Amino acid sequence: MVTTIQVSNELMNTLKSKKMYDKESYEKIIWDLIEDTMELSEETKRDIEQAKKDVKAGRVYTHEQVKKELGL
Length: 72
Known about the structure:
Layout lengths: L8 H10 L7 H11 L5 H15 L6 H8 L2
């Protein structure tokens, strides 16, 4: 179902300022904002913890190291 909502000029200007590109829909902007407030999944939380351990252990590469390895 599609519906129309009313928003204040202030909110409309704020939504406009969030656009990454001219044709981005307001629906996409609103979904992105909602996603930012959602809880991370347990898998994502585990991945973040593993990444922190990898950084502490030095198991990381800089962009320059990766580019050199790939010959870029």
